[in-house]
């Protein structure tokens, strides 16, 4: 899946935010997270294993998310990640920053196109 | 289903992760790949395509490792098996501690014994260190105390290496010295305090005005006196906090009020703060904390009294930048100046000697008298702690034996040797720190208990708080202890070869012989240490019993003594003074229960004033001789035997031939081997020769056991007026009463007789001679008790140690014993086997300990009386006691071994 350079840069900056927001409502495991990103972006954004898990472990190490092995009936055990209190705060900050950024962009482009 | 893990592990390999972490990642990632694979299959892909697409998620060979590299380096996770290898030395400390606590709680018996042993060892150390901290380490409670020094004088060739200052000499020092910013004198003095209640006798001090600013202590109320007020005739006084509270109920209006000191009015100008103590206890002279201070105010007579009296301690503060050495050099210049200005007549009397000025740091002067004792005690408790360590180490070793399987399993799971050692040390540390906490409790009670026993003759505080230093000390000692007792078992256990222990696992799974050797070493060491302590305590005990056997030279039973100081205000003429004491003696003699009464200016055991005398027909002077005045039938009342000639009679009074008595020491010193009766001896100033009419036995002037001093006895009624009353100060007499009943029961009757003569008088120091004797030996008794206590503790711990080791080894050797007995060994033989092993260990310790004690007890020579530090009887006695205790401790396990039923023992294995 060929990403352009600009796409790579974009992904690095916002990947953390994507993951955090995906587990905000409930804990999810790695495969679920990667599938959701792919589906919701309509296939535009994809994480493969070699980049998703290092990112998850980094977020876990920072204390933003926490992984736990959970065994559900009729399923193999999986590691579910949930947002920690600190992660919740970081996510709120990042979302605010993102919205301000988008609003700023919009104001500029709208003025130009008006 | 495809195998994902090998693919993942291969990519993780370069990271060298901890095995548990590696497995965890592989689990998670393979689950992900499996999910992908299943989804691809579900979407209709072939197995082959699905497999390759899923595997593509790992993106080449090294992307995963690169992505994880930085993150995983810091990623620490508790290993599942304790003791498992890990990259970080400090990883899992919390886990180690938790594990250690769990292990300790699993064997409560072992833990309780180890804890108690450590708590006793650490507690004893903390208690003694608290006292050492309070006395030796803490600075004195004055401003910049390290700059304060005490100046003293010495006449080395006359046998007086250190005496306090004399007023004319102090004046020379003040004039000449260049090393001190200020200098002042102080001297203890007793007063009858009147006003504000019954007259009472108090300990006060004459103190130069410069002393208070030098100490840097501000009064709580009012002020201290100025240099201008430090002159004869200015009668001002500063009260101590205790006296102010006790006698004046802490009333602030005490300032400006007049109190009577020996009936002379003094105006109170200040009150010192609560914790102010001066003079400090400890130095050789002027060491009684005063309750009231008045100006030193040297009189012109005092300032001209060259060679007259050496009673004033001199305190000085070093100038900034001046070192102690430089001040000593300056003192040499002062000494030269004193030599230059000394009156030639005096120099002649002193056999051509003038005093030399020396200095001692105040701290050293204060703590010098107890330093040896404290260091010996510190050493003693140090030994106790080592014994405790050795004990716990043997316990740990025995216990470790039962853990070899556990260790082997952990080694099999990948625990490294370092990690195992750390784990064992952590257990030791947890144990030691818990012991430390208990030890602090023991120290808390121990310190106050110990200090409550301190006799007043020892310059030790009556309370000391456990400060930060002590806590730091306990923590340090606990950690060191943990290392000392933990390292050997840790090293031994960790060196277990897994296969070896598995092979041996039919039995205890232990390399038995090596362990026995190490345990044997520890027990021997314990006995060696206990030997040192027991010999130290034994020496003190022997010395103390010798001291108690010593005759003080008089009969101390049935004797009541009291001091009756008179003041110049009521008794301004020598005749009045003589009459008062004579009447007092006569009136007390009429009381029922009184056998005889006498009086003297000094009493045995309490120290005397020494003077230089001249022998008729000889050049120069005698060494210093104690001069004692007696009134009434002194010698028979005291029970001092007359050896030659006669004692004083009522006819020896002013106007009759001047006579004197001497004791054996004086005879030996002045007329060795000659007949002393009829010889003449006397004071150089004013020149007065007296004929010796009798010789009496020696008495102890200082504490019991001190060398008897030469004595020169004079009849009080024959003394010139200026002896009875010197510089308007009346030398007080002590009254001694020999009774036929309990002397203490006559106290009130005796005091009533004195008050019948003068109701205003305060009677001081009412004591029985038996009490005096007891307090004279209180210090050595205390030393003996404390060291004895620690020695007992040491013996107890060593006994537990040898018992523990033998009991354990018997338990381990049941099988072997069973075989021996099955093969025909007698019960007696078995018992002998065990006893011999115990005796061998104890004897080894005894030999090493005795050798070490020979060297170490020399340190305490100054605490011993009349025996040498290598007293053979003590060494032999200690050896007997130790061996007996060791055999007793071995007997219990030996008896158990003897009763082994061969069949049971064999079946047991």
Number of helices of chain A: 4
Largest interface: A-B, 18 and 23 residues
User: Given the structure, what is the number of helices of chain B?
Assistant: 29
Q: What percent of residues of chain A adopt helix (DSSP H or I)? A: 55-70%
- Please state the CA-atom Rg of chain A, rounded to the nearest Å: 16 Å
The largest β sheet of chain B comes out as:
12 strands, mixed
Describe the secondary-structure layout.
The complex is a heterodimer of chains A (114) and B (909).
Chain A: H1 5-22, E1 28-29, H2 30-40, H3 49-62, E2 65-70, E3 78-83, H4 85-113
Antiparallel strand pairs in A: 1-3, 2-3
Chain B: H1 5-12, H2 19-42, H3 47-55, H4 63-73, H5 93-106, H6 108-137, E1 148-155, E2 160-163, H7 167-176, E3 180-194, E4 200-207, H8 211-215, E5 221-222, E6 236-239, H9 241-248, E7 258-261, E8 264-271, E9 292-295, H10 300-304, E10 313-318, H11 324-341, H12 344-349, E11 356-361, H13 362-401, H14 404-412, H15 417-452, H16 468-494, H17 498-503, H18 512-549, E12 559-564, H19 574-589, E13 594-600, E14 610-612, E15 614-615, E16 624-632, H20 634-638, E17 642-645, E18 659-663, H21 664-670, E19 680-683, E20 688-696, E21 711-715, H22 721-724, E22 725-726, E23 729-730, E24 733-739, H23 747-757, E25 764-768, H24 769-776, H25 778-812, H26 814-822, H27 827-856, H28 872-898, H29 902-908
Parallel strand pairs in B: 4-9, 6-8, 16-21, 18-20
Antiparallel strand pairs in B: 1-2, 1-10, 1-11, 3-4, 3-7, 3-10, 5-8, 6-9, 7-8, 12-24, 12-25, 13-16, 13-24, 14-16, 15-19, 17-20, 18-21, 19-20, 22-23
